Amino acid sequence: MKKSTILYWSSVILGILFIDLVLVGSYLDAVDSLSILALLSPTQLGLWFVLGSIVLFTVGIVGIIRQYFKNHRNLLSVFAILLIPPLTFVTSLFGYSIIVLNAPWFPIRSEITQVTVVDTSSLVLSVGVKAITSRDSRIDQAFVIDSDNELVAETSFDDREWFEHGDFKGLALAVLPAGSEITLTLNFNTTLPSGDYLLRLSSWGANHGDSPFTIP
Known about the structure:
This protein folds into two domains: 3-101, no CATH class; 111-215, Immunoglobulins (Immunoglobulin-like), CATH 2.60.40. The protein has four helices and eleven strands. The protein has helices at residues 3-31, 42-45, 47-68, 73-101; strands at 111-119, 124-130, 137-139, 141-145, 151-154, 161-165, 168-172, 174-176, 181-187, 195-203, 206-215. A hairpin with a 2-residue loop joins strand 6 and strand 7 (168-172). The longest helix is centred in the first third of the chain and has 29 residues, at 3-31.
């Protein structure tokens, strides 16, 4: 195989891989928004990265056309140059738009840094929470699970506060700005016996973060 053939096919493969990287990074950033994933988003990679991917893909296709098509290769090359870049860009933009439009309002990621039992007569916990996302996250509910994996307590609806966040308005325990840390005081209005438990935070009905704690 000629070196030029390897070069052209490598250019096509790299162009596809780089475009896929942008779309995968967009999806992961939209769903989880972990700080490490934000580096893969188009806003961080930049428009030039996307355009460079399209150029690589186009150059590779044109090179392959000129090698394998003896008849009308100049015409086919012109068509490839005129059609591939806009079609690839529009397709990538469409995929990115679908990802963004279907992304959750808030990513479901946080880390519980500490759990302190404040009161046991009516269980009250002081909970340190750290957002590990590049976008604001939201906590809707908190649950206590015993050693048998049974739900034994949860925060009441009255513990929630009204939040306004851009176009979003609703009730939640807290909204954490990206990368921030807060301390929540959770009153479960119940008494639990001594033992080992698991505190679980929830958002959109999914697990948001959990941590073990012990009631003496």
